[in-house]
Amino acid sequence: MRVVTFGEMLMRLTTDPTVRLQQSNLFTYYYGGAEANVAVSLADFGVDTLYISKVPDNSIGEACEKYLQSNQIDTRHLLKGGDRLGLYFVESGIGNRSSQVTYDRKFSSFSQLKQEEVNWDRILEGADLFHTTGITLALSEELREITLEAMKQAKNRGIKVSFDFNFRAKLWSQQEASKAIEKVLPFIDIAFCNHMDAVHLLNIEVLENETDHEEKLTYYYKQIQAKYPNIQVFASTKREVVSSSSHRLEGYLFADQHISKTHTYTIEPVVDRIGGGDAYAAGVLFGILSKWDPDKTVHFATGASVLKHTLAGDGNAFSIAEVEQFTQNVSQEISR
Amino acid sequence: MRVVTFGEMLMRLTTDPTVRLQQSNLFTYYYGGAEANVAVSLADFGVDTLYISKVPDNSIGEACEKYLQSNQIDTRHLLKGGDRLGLYFVESGIGNRSSQVTYDRKFSSFSQLKQEEVNWDRILEGADLFHTTGITLALSEELREITLEAMKQAKNRGIKVSFDFNFRAKLWSQQEASKAIEKVLPFIDIAFCNHMDAVHLLNIEVLENETDHEEKLTYYYKQIQAKYPNIQVFASTKREVVSSSSHRLEGYLFADQHISKTHTYTIEPVVDRIGGGDAYAAGVLFGILSKWDPDKTVHFATGASVLKHTLAGDGNAFSIAEVEQFTQNVSQEISR
Amino acid sequence: MRVVTFGEMLMRLTTDPTVRLQQSNLFTYYYGGAEANVAVSLADFGVDTLYISKVPDNSIGEACEKYLQSNQIDTRHLLKGGDRLGLYFVESGIGNRSSQVTYDRKFSSFSQLKQEEVNWDRILEGADLFHTTGITLALSEELREITLEAMKQAKNRGIKVSFDFNFRAKLWSQQEASKAIEKVLPFIDIAFCNHMDAVHLLNIEVLENETDHEEKLTYYYKQIQAKYPNIQVFASTKREVVSSSSHRLEGYLFADQHISKTHTYTIEPVVDRIGGGDAYAAGVLFGILSKWDPDKTVHFATGASVLKHTLAGDGNAFSIAEVEQFTQNVSQEISR
Amino acid sequence: MRVVTFGEMLMRLTTDPTVRLQQSNLFTYYYGGAEANVAVSLADFGVDTLYISKVPDNSIGEACEKYLQSNQIDTRHLLKGGDRLGLYFVESGIGNRSSQVTYDRKFSSFSQLKQEEVNWDRILEGADLFHTTGITLALSEELREITLEAMKQAKNRGIKVSFDFNFRAKLWSQQEASKAIEKVLPFIDIAFCNHMDAVHLLNIEVLENETDHEEKLTYYYKQIQAKYPNIQVFASTKREVVSSSSHRLEGYLFADQHISKTHTYTIEPVVDRIGGGDAYAAGVLFGILSKWDPDKTVHFATGASVLKHTLAGDGNAFSIAEVEQFTQNVSQEISR
Amino acid sequence: MRVVTFGEMLMRLTTDPTVRLQQSNLFTYYYGGAEANVAVSLADFGVDTLYISKVPDNSIGEACEKYLQSNQIDTRHLLKGGDRLGLYFVESGIGNRSSQVTYDRKFSSFSQLKQEEVNWDRILEGADLFHTTGITLALSEELREITLEAMKQAKNRGIKVSFDFNFRAKLWSQQEASKAIEKVLPFIDIAFCNHMDAVHLLNIEVLENETDHEEKLTYYYKQIQAKYPNIQVFASTKREVVSSSSHRLEGYLFADQHISKTHTYTIEPVVDRIGGGDAYAAGVLFGILSKWDPDKTVHFATGASVLKHTLAGDGNAFSIAEVEQFTQNVSQEISR
Amino acid sequence: MRVVTFGEMLMRLTTDPTVRLQQSNLFTYYYGGAEANVAVSLADFGVDTLYISKVPDNSIGEACEKYLQSNQIDTRHLLKGGDRLGLYFVESGIGNRSSQVTYDRKFSSFSQLKQEEVNWDRILEGADLFHTTGITLALSEELREITLEAMKQAKNRGIKVSFDFNFRAKLWSQQEASKAIEKVLPFIDIAFCNHMDAVHLLNIEVLENETDHEEKLTYYYKQIQAKYPNIQVFASTKREVVSSSSHRLEGYLFADQHISKTHTYTIEPVVDRIGGGDAYAAGVLFGILSKWDPDKTVHFATGASVLKHTLAGDGNAFSIAEVEQFTQNVSQEISR
Ligand SMILES: [Ca+2]
Ligand SMILES: [Ca+2]
Ligand SMILES: [Ca+2]
Ligand SMILES: [Ca+2]
Ligand SMILES: [Ca+2]
Ligand SMILES: [Ca+2]
Ligand SMILES: [Ca+2]
Ligand SMILES: [Ca+2]
Ligand SMILES: [Ca+2]
Ligand SMILES: [Ca+2]
Ligand SMILES: [Ca+2]
Ligand SMILES: [Ca+2]
Ligand code: NI
Ligand code: NI
Ligand code: NI
Ligand code: NI
Ligand code: NI
Ligand code: NI
Ligand code: NI
Ligand code: NI
Ligand code: NI
Ligand code: NI
Ligand code: NI
Ligand code: NI
Ligand code: NI
Ligand code: NI
Ligand code: NI
Ligand code: NI
Ligand code: NI
Ligand code: NI
């Protein structure tokens, strides 16, 4: 099993949740980025993963590379150069106070990537799946073209293509996103998106009189599939944010005209929600590549995501066995 | 807008909540004191604040001064001298274990303050409001006289007077408190007190057959107002302590014969409840000075208090916009 | 009041709950072991305690000795020698993620203890109670004989004997445990065990159609008592593990054909559950030695156990007065 | 006394000195920048200081503002806007390992500053001295013009102008620096530069057969003064870097055709050398503004710089009395 | 061997050496006091030690008691009551920056001690030596009388009396000290004092034309002995403070008309010098009680003191064997 | 370039240098072992490294594996099973206090390794060099045979064999070591040993009237080479331990009848000396594999070792370029 992911690597600088950024002088820093996070999770499941990005040719870029290597990710095609690594500051929330994100990712090496720097022919060799997200598309016109080129080459080689909408309002408008995403959808096999994406980015007509989340999603996924019959699998989570420290999470997976879902997981305390969605995506992709049935897949993916919320840092760090032990277990009691 | 607050500055020495004081050798220390905390909050709302106190003329007194200055508080009238800064030790509680407070505030510089050291004429110049609390009254006979003098001068200048009962059983008896508080009440416009204060300190007749907290408070506030018609606004919070880590909070404000209240805020986890009452008082005072309607004021004040519980340290650190974003928001989800 | 406890001392090496063991390079370490923990609690209640164990004759053994001494435990009979101290690694769980225990206790000095090293005659002099647990029995055939010898001598001297089943599936099989425990039961006055122990270790017939936990326990305790009429008191807790961070706990005590129980305590957050059972056992033993009535005893013991969960480390650290303040109190609000 | 400083504010992100950046996930962060550091020192000496810069209009810019305010610096003319705050990573060296700096300051708000954003007329009102450094000149062509404009206006108003060469090879070439610096030198009263600057940036003929540092500096300063007779005072330090943890420092001051110097201070351990030069500059400026004799000034400035090396962070934090106590003292023994 | 020490217990609140007190919010706290420190060291050498003091009857007093107990000190005569524990703040120095001490010890429970609270008859029972210092005398007139009484009773019982001058200029004047110390000297067997004490407190004529420290001390000790022939042993250290981080230390011991000294120990880095003198005193007392020859004693005592400087906290923590291994060893190389 | 190293992996548990093990409850832990450390260094120089060891099949063994992988070491032949990982406790010394090592490595999985578990045929495939140390020989008779077998197979394949004497007095006697080492020496090309090893382990006649270290080493290396002409290169360091915090280091390399040496490096402060010898060995091996001249090799190796002393942890973390920058540089000044 071999997966290629493509996207921007970011450094996250985060404060302790009991102080404001202006009161502190300590950051914990993590490397992340949606596509890197997916690669990290998949590597923990034993998948051969190759990650394509561009980082600066300095100590920060080198630290990125070592982070990826320590997670058993193939970095032989990682590009070095450009001005800087994108980063963002997170004033960590807790309880009633929400986390505050301040982006400082403009002018990043990846966002300046040029088409001629990437040799998809060599990168995609031997791959089973290619994954990227809407964040990559948001960063530049050139990146949209590079992504399109990657997807086309993947299609030609019979490699599955996975795409997570990951809409970020701080990066682009719905209108821009809509235009760019509609261009890539015809090449996609697996889509991570939810009903808001359907309405705001794909202009699917709003469902009136809906009864529950399951039915609602089924409607929207079918509508999207009607427009893009190439998309075989849709997935998303439903997250209820009770407070910064308490979330409720459900996983949804649509395949073969049928939606599968999990029961509701209560996550309390939330140690770190960042990367939770990427852990879910990795779980779904792993289930699909393993040809598991949808119910097993959606539980595995949601379990992996729930576990991610108990660890600080963007990347998940659980083996298949550990995720399964969690999804099959009834108690968090110590075994000794 | 210019506010003068008057009271004792304290250093709080607090342990990590997972160990007992006797097991630890690390204190986190904060500067506080009810009146300083109110000043800190008001300064964050953009109010000109002047704080009057007396701290020792040594490195600790200097640190107090710098703390106040870093919070944009006018310290030009801060007195230096005397023996020591009052301090107290807090063995932080968590979950089922409550916090343990050990006071070491006797013989403090402020508690030895002499009338001739304070020039109210110069201090109150240009002020819109004067605020102090029952803690100041509890510290010495002389401080009761100084406070009375301040209130009288404020009255003469048309400056609003605000008083928080803040009864501390470790500092004085109900009987002593009652006597001292009754002397200042005729000069007060805004009173922070609750039904317990009404019964135990002001000897209001107990209400039998009460139905709910709102009606109960209305009865007591009306009774107090009957005796002290000068008091135009009453405010308090209702706090349910589920455990040291989980509180429920409601705000109440009585003005124009009408009580306004908030819904119940669940605070979980409680990072630090100390200063929560002062953040509320500051919010109420800011609403009154801004001539907001009572409903807006009580929500703003309670929201500020709730947010305070998510930060370590006595002083709040939120702007008007941040408090309003919280009171108007429905989710603690990260925005990115 | 003088109590002797006998068992293996262990070092626990534990990670911060927000990282995996493989991601961290920091351990917090604690000394523990079921019987040492009971001694630590009893010493805090003012009991003269003597602890018998064997630790290596090096810096680690010395640190064990100092730990015990700093808890006012008599270490004059603590043996030094052998190869090593047993230790175990705990990857601390939080929320949905459970703690992972990795034992490294094989070949410990205590597990190699020889009968001739222990002089029960001198050790038991003046004692009122002797306490050990099933863990001691699990460690070697020789330790089973040493324990049996200790119990016999205690019986001869009129010293009460207390035994906590503490079955550990990682140490031995139910079959081995059953055989060893049945040999010591005839010498026991106070037994800490639950319905699972009754079924799996003592082969008591399973109760069908049970209605609630209280009735169930009564049935099993009566059945055991029928076989071992020497056992006068049975005790156990019922723990519901909602998540690693949220437990519910009830205490049960059976004496004079009657079961006493507490209401349910919600423990949230759980700071550290290890040692919680030992804190309970110490509370029960203290109540029995103090000739308190069962209701008082079971509430004191459960209260002590609940408080233990709020402290990091195996050993409890509360005085009688502090436990009673907790069991009698209704609020965790700070008193000041 | 009123001083205006002008330059770029930076965030420094620094690792613990016992690990490499790639091995760590913790940064301590400080705010700094040569001109801000000078302002912080001067404020501690009681000088009214006003700092002009531009920071982004987000949580990071706000934190900069609060940092300056907590150091009693006037921020009323601090500009907000643009893309980002310049920052740099420091892998802290120790002993034989040197610190590694990785800049990430490109595209900063300050480096994009436009002439029309700065109203020198209002900023310079009431000032006694204007200070900036070569770093400001290095950042853009526009900043060179803005700086020139500021210096001209200062000259017109009879305000002293101070300039620290602060050549940074990572920011520009010697040739570029030379050209820009020569344009500002005619407006300067006080120059911080050393013999390397004289040779490489001002093309002063190299002194052959020099005997010692004092004579060497005298020669170069006289040569520069011959070209720019407006410069009345020259200052610099001589630093011997024995290792990252052990430096030797001497201060030099040239005025009235005479050079004054200090004895050699051994600094061991060096806690943090960053800001050491700025602490020296502030000391020199304070001595000049106070009309102290050169010997007193150079000892005060060097003492302040030495003390800076014992504190983590860019900004110094000593009063006049504390610096003088150090320069006059013979022992670091505790007084008690 | 049984030793009784008598004096004030203090809490030390100390900052990290890389920040100023006003910049920090973390204190490490230690319990100490000259006489308690001597007791802690002696207990580590296996001596039965009893410590007499008075601490408040609250959580802080209890923590003091547990600290002493964890160091195997007999606290059965420790008094509880009064207003507060004396404490002091230490802004830790490093390198060129000296530590800054701010006392807050006024009104302490011990300083208010009354003669009738101490039953010397029971306390001194079985003792071989009684030790106190000039700090105790400095605290009140009453304490001078209590101390005198203790010494007289000790004399009557044939118990050796030891006294450390420990002059603290922040506590009293030389004149007051002189008067009080001269009253106790006739009862003393072992005196810790140096040539400064001889000149300033005992008015010994200054030695002109002295050649070295050894001769100087010999002269002064002989002069004091001439006045107080009861004093059999004098001891002191000579400390050269190169910087806060680098000291040089020599030990001196005068007995039988002969002075013994050590070579010079370089201490670098100095981790914590507080308690270094007390570790030396304990070493001298232990040598005397063990009837070691002066050379062995002075090396043991100085070695113990040097080791103390490598540990944070007031109390030393080395066994006899560990001190001897240090004094006899030539290398600090790891043995493995 | 491909190198195979073989030896025991250990976990080091180390305290902060300002406290004693018995006073602390925090360990920093590192993975190490002489042969693993050499592999880590070589991997940083870009060498393909394969490490053979046996670790337990649990969370600790897995953490070892991930540590090796994150250092780009091939772990495909790492064995899993057995009872435990060897570990040791280090009470970190500082200044005058030396580090105290307490081993707990008995019964480790590696020490129980059986010949049939290791397939040298597959392991050595493609290797250029095989490296192990005397520690491996010390652990069991079986390991001596396994090592001999490995060396023989290496010889047969034309693979260079490197051996570091690494005598550990806590593991075996000189006599046992002598016997075992003499058996492997005939197969060795590169030997790390010093004059003490020559005298005590190889019974080389002591050199009288030696003049300096260089001549001494030359004599001993020639004597050993006379007995074992197969050894082509000898290397060692000369370390002067001024204190735990200050070392002086020189590198020596003997090849082609000629000894090469470095100047003396002063290391102050010593952050962590453990692994310093292994960093040196890796540097020497890399120089030999790169066919560098002896002078370049010995400076590179010693420079790498010196840099290792500035980092916490056993493994070095410097690239070829970074080591060369250090060996060629004259100053530790920050470049910016
Ligand atoms: Ca991983
Ligand atoms: Ca995500
Ligand atoms: Ca503020
Ligand atoms: Ca409050
Ligand atoms: Ca205890
Ligand atoms: Ca237990
Ligand atoms: Ca300042
Ligand atoms: Ca500088
Ligand atoms: Ca001790
Ligand atoms: Ca001392
Ligand atoms: Ca590496
Ligand atoms: Ca080594
Ligand atoms: Ni959160
Ligand atoms: Ni969250
Ligand atoms: Ni989150
Ligand atoms: Ni709490
Ligand atoms: Ni609370
Ligand atoms: Ni609280
Ligand atoms: Ni738990
Ligand atoms: Ni928790
Ligand atoms: Ni527990
Ligand atoms: Ni430096
Ligand atoms: Ni340094
Ligand atoms: Ni530096
Ligand atoms: Ni010192
Ligand atoms: Ni120091
Ligand atoms: Ni000291
Ligand atoms: Ni060392
Ligand atoms: Ni060291
Ligand atoms: Ni070392």
From TrEMBL, chains A, B, C, D, E, F:
GO molecular function: kinase activity
Domain Carbohydrate kinase PfkB: 2-314
InterPro entries linked to this entry: Carb_kinase_PfkB-like, PfkB_dom, Ribokinase-like
Naturally occurring in which organism (per UniProt): Gracilibacillus ureilyticus
Keywords assigned: Kinase, Transferase
Name used for this protein in its record: 2-dehydro-3-deoxygluconokinase
Domain of life of the source: Bacteria
Entry keyword annotation includes Transferase: yes
One of the Pfam families matching this protein, by short name: PfkB
Family the UniProt entry places it in: Belongs to the carbohydrate kinase PfkB family.
